[in-house]
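Prompt: For my understanding, could you write out one protein's sequence and backbone structure tokens?
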Amino acid sequence: MKFRNRVLGLLSLLLVITYLDRVCISVAGPRIQQALNIGPIGWGWVTAVFTISYAIFEIPSGALGDRIGPRKVLTRIVLWWSAFTSITGLVTGLGPLLLIRFFFGMGEAGAFPNAGATVSRWFPVKERGRAFGIIMMASQFGGAIAPLLVVPIQVQYGWRASFYLFGILGVVWSGLCYGWFRDSPAQIKGITTAELAEVKGLGAHAHHPFPFRHALRSVNLWAMLGVACCYVYTYNFFQSWFHTYLVKAHGYSEKDLMLSSLPFIVGGLANFTGGLASNAAVQRLGLEWGRRAIGLAGLGLSALCTVLLMLTHQPFLALALLCLI
């Protein structure tokens, strides 16, 4: 197996653990709210402080990876969030939980940018789309298995135990990353001369300041930011309110939450097939509209299903619509 495919496996495992830890608090949400007597507004702040701190520190953490390399930064990121994942199991009230979630978001920021930097250092341009598709599918897989793991642990040992256990996973990954992974192919032992020739010139990136003045004048950048805002606004629901919504709005029991894996499974398959569909659309419609068509169709379907979701009172129909969103 080529070393870059092993690196891809390491990154995929990173994204699985990332979303496993993120979705864990959503699955445990109903129990946490009951145990700590947290109302809807308080829980809204619990989910918001993570997102706020994550957004604030995303660019600095990404820039740090450009400067010193993703190996050190990813190791720090995963150790940091693993610590605060485990500490979450110790909270006794809303105030400490808010503080922990803020530091959790601060520490996890930069995971995606540094995963992207790793792909750029290890994979030729023609292979990067496939690599990103696989690691994004892995992130959805992490969200899918979270309910399958968290619910049985909660039933048997309580909600706090799931946070203790998931924190250990990140520590193991950090040890593997720092001990084996390197920032560029030329730095790793055992790589073949043939593979080095395939990735020649990658990994030797000098750090340059980002040209914000020019970037912020780009119409394409603002368009992509708009799309990302709409996408993440909806997706954040699945990482924060999804399981509370199923329980309180549609009467799902704790055991029924095992079904909440379905939207993440559908999302993972969509990530994989979306790239293939986009390539086919480019051949048929051209580069500009081929790329636009997938986004327009996907977000258009999501908007329609969101409206229908607000109108339905059928639990399983609601879940089906959430899968399509």
Remarks:
- The chain has two domains: 1-199, 216-325.
- The chain has a mean pLDDT of 89.
- The domain at 1-199 is CATH 1.20.1250.20 (Growth Hormone; Chain: A;).
